[in-house]
Amino acid sequence: MDAELAAGTYRGYLHGIPYGAKDLLAARGYPTTWGAEPYRDQTIDLDASVVEQLDAAGAVLCAKLSMGALAWGDVWYGEMTRNPWKVDSGSSGSSAGSASAVAAGLLPFAIGTETLGSIVSPSTVCGTTGLRPTFGRVSRYGAMALSWSMDKIGPITRSARDAGLVLAAIAHYDARDAHSIRAGFQYILPLDIPAPRRIGYLKGSFAGEYDFAANDSMALKKLREIGYELVEVELPNAPEIGFILSVEAAAAFESLTRSGDDDLLARQMRDAWPNVFRRPTLSRPWPTSRPIGCAANSWSRWTGCSPKTILRYTSIRVGTPVACSSPT
User: Fold this and answer.
1) Residues 118, 121, 147, 149: which is the catalytic one?
2) Active site includes 100?
3) Tens digits of residue pLDDT in 87-106
4) Number of compact structural domains in the chain
5) Which of 89, 99, 117, 236 is buried deepest, with most CB atoms within 10 A?
6) 92 included as an active-site residue
7) Residues spanned by the domain of 139
8) Beta-carbon neighbour count of residue 264 at 10 Å?
9) Per-residue pLDDT for 50 more than 50?
10) Does 241 fall in a domain?
11) How far apart are CA 248 and CA 258, in angstroms?
């Protein structure tokens, strides 16, 4: 990379910038353990699409980062990933090492994944900026599949500006991912704060007492201070979609369950993966060999409310992140 710069070749903002990747993304020459003892010695001889795209952008992969075993929580086969600001507690997960490393200043940015909270939760706990893109915007080729209908890949950074730069580098259509959409992302660094805009925020999400409520209130206050008009919005009650994750995850790791090697996973409590996997496998009323969540994830089909109804009135939407001990 230095030789290219010396020769006058500049690939863009990420040229020569080091980063880390969650250990469910394949990278040629690296172990890809998925944070789980049964896959501790696994290697995959290819680069995930996001690794390819960041390589083309000039970024330098420096580390594979710890993750909760099979994308659950912050406990992997070796230890628990720590919150660098409070080392006696976990970082949350499952993009545990990605958020912890960036928060500790070890890397400028990292790549995480989210199925149901695994980017926003550790980012909330560790104090980083996590961006969970629209489903299909970033290719998942070369990534561990947990839920075909819900898995997303996105950046964990130190600022929203950095998140925009990284997303622009990785949001490209990829035919190797059947759910990839043609919705790239172009980002131009702002020279100054734009004219005041209306920001919609989910009033109900900010109500009451909950973890990190003080931080969320400070965020709203800061937005007002820099000139944004906050508009209260509410959305219809969303359907419970956890069953999609449970069934598709059970399908993805059916061979692990049937082999008995799920006993090697570090966590074995009631709601840990081994027991979650066994429930659909033992009592499923349908074959689990294919994704089932496409229709269930259609917002307008389930709620009868088009997102355009909300987006028509605001430029940006704000909701509270989810922080819990074992998101996926």
Assistant:
1) 118
2) no
3) 999 999 999 999 999 999 99
4) 1
5) 99
6) no
7) 2-170
8) 17
9) yes
10) no
11) 15
